């Protein structure tokens, strides 16, 4: 076992709450699509000291799944296995014996903390750096697993390290930036074998030294007339406004944000497509990809195929953003997946590109 370098774990002198285990558990309120499904067993982890008992309670099932805020998952059917629901809480600034030269601080956040609360907490501490990622639903642990990104920033750019437990062996390990293998909406935890790791706690690097990130055009435009650089609070407010204007609030209309990843293709293919399809947005492919790669906009491709606002029963495509599938009421996971399949086929038919789903699909396909 590698000790965590920044100290770890909850206060040792209190008694952990009793572990909650629910059989045949309803999942509708635990996924932001609001899809109705059940799990054979749900185990709610509220305190790290419950880990041995919680891990034991998920053994003996032929499938196991870890759930955070449920904002990046689609239950395609009932889940014939055990779900470990992460609800651990706690955030703290780390007293750094060798303070960062750029005035940044390290903060420690338990995986179960809601991500947007973490952004707000950090701003309230006077620590900038997370504001471009404001309002993203989900938990802090899940945020790092899929390397959330929005408005010019990915969480890996604010990442210091994390602590995770191997659910199979019980080993607790410290992961550095390099260990996590971050990519576009990707990390080692999403790749084969990665699902055995339960992220317990992350350490983020935040602070005034970081300066504003204004690479996203619409965000930059908002401050174009302002002489001084926008503060972190101003960027947070602007991001909230932009997000609310485009993306549906899951509390009002079930959704899981972007349903597909933006496809990364060869630059030659992107340029050839742009000749055929005037207005096709082409972006740099991002860190880890060579310059011979380009990222296209899945929302634009789907929109051009005429899907915006389309509805098949209660499964639909959001009227303001073609990349977001929505549940208008009682759509099943199966119905949403069927709609996603039709969209995929039509984008492939017109552009020759297969879109890849962003959420994790759980259950029988
Ligand atoms: N577009 C259309 N029609 C649409 C939607 C978009 O033509 O219906 C065009 C836009 O006009 C723009 C381009 O597509 O030119 C890109 O759209 P947008 O800026 O909204 O961003 P996105 O690429 O669709 C990504 C992330 C979002 C993130 C935004 C902002 C992915 C899969 N999605 O969306 O993340 O909020 O950028 O940075 O990378 C999420 O992952 O769940 C998510 C919401």
Number of helical elements: 9
Q: Note poorly predicted spans.
A: none
Bound small molecules, by name, code or SMILES, are:
uridine-diphosphate-2(N-acetylglucosaminyl) butyric acid
Assess the beta-strand content as a share of residues.
25-35%
Largest sheet: 5 strands, antiparallel
Extended strand count: 20
Count of discrete structural domains: 3
> What is the annotated CATH architecture of the largest domain?
2-Layer Sandwich
Instruction: Report how far apart the termini are.
Output: 37 Å
CATH topology of the largest domain: Uridine Diphospho-n-acetylenolpyruvylglucosamine Reductase, domain 3
At the first level of CATH, what is the class of the largest domain?
A: Alpha Beta
Based on CA atoms alone, the radius of gyration comes out at: 21 Å
Helical/strand content category: alpha+beta
Shape: globular
Residues in helices, as a percent range: 10-25%
Order of helices and strands: EEHEEEEEHHEEEEHEHHEEHEEHEEEHE
Mean pLDDT: 94
Strand order within the widest beta sheet? 6-7-12-10-11
Structure description:
The chain is globular. It has helices spanning 51-57, 115-124, 140-145, 177-180, 217-222, 232-246, 267-276, 298-304, 333-351, and strands spanning 20-26, 38-45, 64-67, 73-75, 79-86, 91-94, 105-110, 149-150, 153-154, 159-166, 172-176, 197-206, 254-258, 264-266, 282-284, 293-296, 311-312, 315-317, 324-327, 360-362. The chain has three domains: 18-86, Uridine Diphospho-n-acetylenolpyruvylglucosamine Reductase, domain 2 (2-Layer Sandwich), CATH 3.30.43; 91-207, Uridine Diphospho-n-acetylenolpyruvylglucosamine Reductase, domain 3 (2-Layer Sandwich); 254-362, UDP-N-acetylenolpyruvoylglucosamine reductase, C-terminal domain (Uridine Diphospho-n-acetylenolpyruvylglucosamine Reductase, domain 1, Alpha-Beta Complex). The strands form six sheets. Strands 6-7-12-10-11 form a five-stranded antiparallel beta sheet. It has a four-stranded mixed beta sheet with strand order 1-2-5-3. Strands 13-19-18-17 form a four-stranded antiparallel beta sheet, with helices on one face. 23% of the residues lie in helices and 26% in strands. The chain is built from nine helices and 20 strands. It is of the alpha+beta class. Bound molecules: uridine-diphosphate-2(N-acetylglucosaminyl) butyric acid. Residues 150-151, 216, 246-247, 257-258, 261-262, 281, 297, 299-300, 303, 308, 321-323, 358 line the site of uridine-diphosphate-2(N-acetylglucosaminyl) butyric acid.
């Amino acid at each position: 076992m590698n000790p965590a370098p920044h100290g770890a774990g909850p206060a040792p002198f209190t008694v952990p709450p009793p572990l909650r285990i629910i059989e045949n558990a309803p999942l509708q309120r635990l996924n932001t699509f609001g899809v109705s499904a059940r799990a054979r067993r749900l185990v709610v982890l509220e305190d790290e000291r419950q880990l041995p008992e919680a891990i034991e309670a998920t053994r003996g099932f032929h499938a196991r799944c870890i759930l955070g805020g449920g904002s990046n998952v689609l239950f395609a059917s009932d889940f014939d296995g055990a779900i470990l629901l992460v609800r651990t809480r706690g955030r703290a600034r780390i007293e750094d014996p060798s303070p960062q030269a750029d005035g940044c601080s390290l903060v420690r956040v338990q995986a179960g903390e809601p991500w947007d609360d973490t952004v707000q907490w950090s701003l309230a501490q006077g620590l900038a750096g997370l504001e471009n990622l404001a309002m993203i639903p989900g938990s802090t642990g899940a945020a790092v697993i899929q390397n959330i990104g929005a408005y010019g920033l990915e969480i890996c750019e604010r990442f210091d390290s994390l602590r995770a437990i191997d659910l199979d062996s019980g080993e607790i390990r410290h992961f550095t930036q390099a260990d996590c293998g971050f990519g576009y909406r990707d990390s080692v935890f999403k790749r084969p074998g990665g699902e055995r790791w339960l992220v317990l706690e992350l350490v983020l690097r935040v602070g005034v030294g970081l300066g504003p990130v204004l690479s996203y055009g619409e965000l930059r435009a908002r401050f174009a007339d302002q002489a001084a650089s926008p503060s972190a609070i101003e960027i947070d407010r602007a991001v909230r406004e932009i997000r609310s204007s485009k993306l549906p609030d899951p509390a009002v209309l079930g959704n899981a944000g972007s349903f597909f990843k933006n496809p990364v293709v060869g630059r030659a293919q992107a340029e050839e497509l742009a000749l055929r399809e005037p207005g096709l947005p082409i972006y740099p492919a991002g860190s880890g990809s060579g310059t011979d790669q380009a990222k296209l906009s899945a929302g634009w491709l789907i929109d051009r195929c005429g899907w915006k606002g389309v509805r098949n029963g209660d499964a639909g495509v959001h009227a303001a953003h073609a990349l977001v599938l929505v549940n208008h009421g009682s759509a099943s996971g199966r119905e949403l997946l069927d709609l996603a399949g039709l969209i995929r086929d039509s984008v492939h038919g017109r552009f020759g590109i297969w879109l890849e789903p962003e959420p994790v699909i759980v259950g029988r396909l």
